[in-house]
Specification:
The protein is mainly α and 410 residues long. The chain is built from 16 helices and four strands. The longest helix has 41 residues. GO terms for molecular function: metal ion binding; metalloendopeptidase activity.
Length: 410
């Protein structure tokens, strides 16, 4: 294969992935006005349902517009030798390969973030604001951006530096050391995310003593779930949408409730949601997802080790000096079809886990309370009640509301 043929293969992959995603979005949008299944007829009042359809259509149209612009910018970057231009800037600032790689990705990542800011702004302050979801202030929006960039520089920069260093000292065997590093990092994030990362963006407070805490603790004791912490997070700082999640394991496991969840659901419904989260822990889904993630990361790094030393990757992007960082960009595009397939497999596994967690909640608590909570959350989040089956199969990490209700009532 010649550099020019590889270049056009990269461009073709970018365009084909865009076209497939767009086709799925179009198919999904054509189902927005479908008749609501009988089992879901009580989710929305008629006026609210019409508003939810308008919300989905607004998001759909904006996604098509913004993704088309993103594709256009990406193709311009390819055809105008943007990667070679950034590489030249990085090389003009340092002779150290690790520093060059950091500058290269720093320019691309920060540039990408700046270009995506108008999209994020419109999504938050126009669409979400129009339909009553947005609670984010302008200050919070930009402070979040700055915090995210700082974290990306510190954490992402440290990981990238070590991976490039591994490559320089071990050659094609670098993937094993990189996998060990990423596995340790992933494990640490699973353990300490709620303690270290969440407080950077949100305030967490222990759930106050009272009826809700008593019911949660009684349920936890009943099912043998040793619960150390129950926290409430100020999700209403940014949105009216509600959520709850389980994080960590061992001595670091905790349940976190969004304050909007406490506001929207009654105590029985909240405990039913928590019973679902406890189900994930009892069924060892947290560990299974962690192992699957590490396995897929290892597969990706192994494939990368087979191709990264080939100068053809850099030459295809018109970069004169072959390097790890440029090869990584080309490989990322080449690997994207495989990534789509592994993502599909992960979603299938995830949906299976969701059914299992629902069944656990049904068997240990109350399926009708869980069904009621799912309906309320779907209504309050303007969830799509009639998604296209292809969209569900490829992109949904959770079963649809209808599928979950049918499973719970079997």
């Amino acid at each position: 294969m010649t550099p020019i043929s590889l270049f056009y293969l990269l461009v073709a992959i970018v365009v084909i992935v865009f076209l497939i995603d767009t086709l799925l979005d179009v198919l999904n949008a054509n189902h927005y006005d479908d008749k609501i299944p009988e089992e879901l007829s009580d989710v929305y009042p008629k006026d609210e349902y019409l508003k939810s359809i308008a919300y989905k259509k607004a998001n759909y149209k904006f996604k098509i517009f913004s993704s088309t612009i993103s594709l256009f910018i990406m193709l311009l970057f390819f055809f105008l030798d943007g990667f070679a231009w950034v590489d030249n800037i990085a090389r003009s600032l340092s002779d150290n390969s690790i520093v060059i790689g950091l500058i290269f990705f720093g320019i691309i990542m920060i540039g990408s973030d700046i270009l995506s800011t108008p999209t994020s702004y419109y999504q938050t302050f126009v669409i979400e604001e129009k339909f009553g979801f947005n609670k984010t202030s302008l200050k919070t929006f930009f402070v979040d951006k700055i915090k995210s960039i700082i974290m990306m520089i510190i954490v992402g920069g440290a990981l990238l530096s070590l991976i490039i260093w591994f490559y320089e000292i071990t050659g094609k065997h670098f993937w094993m050391y990189a996998l060990a590093l990423i596995s340790i990092f992933t494990l640490a994030m699973n353990m300490f995310y709620a303690r270290l990362i969440v407080p950077i963006f949100n305030k967490q407070t222990p759930l106050e003593p009272g009826e809700l805490r008593n019911i949660i603790e009684a349920y936890s004791k009943k099912v043998g779930f040793q619960l150390k912490d129950i926290y409430v997070i100020d999700g209403s700082k940014r949105s009216t949408k509600a959520n709850a999640y389980f994080s960590g394991f061992g001595s670091e496991k905790r349940i976190t409730l969004y304050d909007t969840l406490i506001k929207d659901l009654d105590n029985e419904e909240i405990v039913a949601v928590l019973a679902h989260e406890v189900g994930h822990f009892k069924k060892k889904h947290v560990i299974a997802n962690l192992l699957l993630s590490i396995l897929l990361t290892g597969l990706t790094l192994w494939f990368l080790s087979l191709f990264i030393a080939n100068p053809l990757l850099s030459e295809a992007l018109n970069v004169s000096v072959p390097s790890f960082h440029v090869g990584l960009v080309a490989f990322g595009v080449l690997y994207s079809p495989i990534s789509e397939i592994t993502g599909l497999v992960m979603n299938i596994v995830s949906r299976t886990f969701e059914y299992q967690a629902d069944n656990y909640a049904k068997n240990t608590y109350n399926e009708e309370a869980l069904i009621s909570s799912l309906k309320k959350l779907s209504k309050n989040n303007f969830s799509n009640l009639t998604p296209h089956p292809a969209m569900v199969f490829i992109h949904y990490s959770h079963p649809t509301l209808l599928q979950r209700i049918k499973n719970l009532r079997e």
